[in-house]
């Protein structure tokens, strides 16, 4: 969990993922000597702040988004949401502008709902603020801001340790409308002919998806994947004996939306651990669901 703790502490709001990208590139360069297969690392201006790792002869790609929700400083001590963060008065926010580090308090106007901040000075407009990270671990759970989607990134990095054939993609902007997966998917399809994907992201605890009962395989959210592909994943999961549960939702989305709308025949399925206290500083995930998520990804990447 030390790696997950580190990932959660690195700010990477949508559009400003650079620090996390740099950390991952250093981590990959340092750790890949211990991996079963050495990947080709594709990064740089051609891919903006995204990273593509290509292992062996790939058949399937895993997409994990780097970015998180947050806030942008506007004018007159106003804040604008990045993505859909939960906003409660008193939340601790952190950031940095040219005048130095920032630790301020979120305010919410009782009448208008407008967001703002309390701080000893005005913060420079355009500054991004993110939740203060208080990472908590027990024998059974981890709790922190930004488990969505640092846990999906953690899962993808751990998958790299044993992956023989496949592509692992670290994307950007997912929390605020997407944008990077369109060109990443195009490059992958045209270069490697890969057109099936798994979405390494975090879903919600609901009345039908419970903590501790295994990783969730999503049958649909606001979009509907091709049933034949999802059924293959369900068959592999059932045969593996790995704890899992099925999710059916009518809202929400992920990097899959850009695959669904791509001009190539991409198949996709969202496979992720459920969390509670979504998009807050107190997101919480059961460790059993983390274990089953990684185990199922290892099997799926071998058999799909």
Span of the ends, CA to CA? 28 Å
The side-by-side strand order for the widest beta sheet comes to: 1-2-12-3-13-17-15-16
The percent range for strand residues is 25-35%
Query: Main sheet, how many strands, which sense, barrel?
Result: 8 strands, mixed
Structural class based on helices, strands and sheet pairing: alpha/beta
In the predicted model, the low-confidence regions spanning at least 5 consecutive residues are none
DSSP strand tally: 19
| H and E order | HHEEEEEEEEEEEHEHEEEHEHEEEH
Structure explained in plain terms:
The protein has 304 residues and is α/β, with parallel strands linked by helices. The chain is built from 7 helices and 19 strands. The protein has helices spanning 2-9, 18-31, 147-160, 180-192, 227-240, 256-260, 287-303; strands spanning 40-42, 51-55, 61-65, 70-73, 79-82, 92-97, 100-108, 115-118, 128-131, 136-137, 141-144, 166-171, 196-199, 203-204, 215-220, 244-248, 267-272, 274-275, 283-286. Strands 1-2-12-3-13-17-15-16 form an 8-stranded mixed β-sheet, sandwiched between helices. A 6-stranded antiparallel β-sheet has the order 5-4-9-6-7-8, with no helix packed on it. A 3-stranded antiparallel β-sheet has the order 10-11-19. Helix 1 (2-9) crosses helix 3, helix 3 crosses helix 7 (287-303) and helix 5 crosses helix 7. The two termini are 28 Å apart.
Topology:
Elements: H1 2-9, H2 18-31, E1 40-42, E2 51-55, E3 61-65, E4 70-73, E5 79-82, E6 92-97, E7 100-108, E8 115-118, E9 128-131, E10 136-137, E11 141-144, H3 147-160, E12 166-171, H4 180-192, E13 196-199, E14 203-204, E15 215-220, H5 227-240, E16 244-248, H6 256-260, E17 267-272, E18 274-275, E19 283-286, H7 287-303
Parallel strand pairs: 3-12, 3-13, 13-17, 14-18, 15-16
Antiparallel strand pairs: 1-2, 2-12, 4-5, 4-9, 6-7, 6-9, 7-8, 10-11, 11-19, 15-17
Helix pairs in contact: 1-3, 3-7, 5-7
């Amino acid at each position: 969990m030390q790696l997950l703790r580190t990932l959660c502490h690195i700010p990477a709001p949508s559009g400003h993922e650079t620090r996390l990208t740099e950390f991952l590139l250093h981590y990959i360069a340092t750790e890949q000597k211990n991996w079963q297969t050495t990947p080709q690392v594709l990064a740089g201006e051609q891919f903006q702040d995204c990273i593509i790792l290509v292992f062996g002869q790939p058949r399937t790609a895993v997409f994990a988004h780097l970015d998180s929700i947050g806030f942008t400083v506007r004018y007159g001590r106003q804040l604008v949401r990045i993505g859909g963060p939960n906003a409660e008065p008193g939340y601790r926010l952190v950031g940095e502008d040219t005048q130095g580090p920032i630790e301020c308090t979120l305010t919410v106007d009782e009448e208008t709902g407008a967001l703002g901040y309390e701080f000893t000075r005005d913060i420079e407009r355009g500054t991004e603020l993110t939740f203060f990270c208080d990472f908590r671990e027990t024998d059974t759970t981890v709790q922190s801001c930004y488990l969505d989607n640092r846990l999906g990134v953690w899962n993808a990095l751990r998958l790299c340790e044993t992956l023989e054939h496949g592509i692992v993609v670290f994307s950007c902007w997912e929390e605020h409308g997407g944008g990077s997966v369109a060109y990443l998917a195009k490059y992958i399809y045209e270069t490697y002919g890969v057109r099936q994907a798994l979405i390494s992201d975090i879903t919600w605890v609901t009345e039908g998806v419970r903590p501790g009962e295994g990783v969730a395989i999503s049958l649909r959210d606001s979009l509907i994947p091709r049933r034949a592909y999802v059924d293959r994943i369900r068959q592999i999961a059932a045969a593996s004996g790995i704890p899992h549960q099925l999710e059916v939702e009518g809202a929400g989305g992920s990097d899959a939306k850009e695959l669904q709308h791509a001009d190539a025949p991409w198949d996709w399925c969202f496979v992720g651990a459920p969390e509670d206290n979504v998009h807050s500083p107190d997101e919480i995930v059961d460790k059993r669901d983390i274990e089953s998520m990684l185990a199922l990804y290892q099997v799926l990447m071998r058999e799909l």
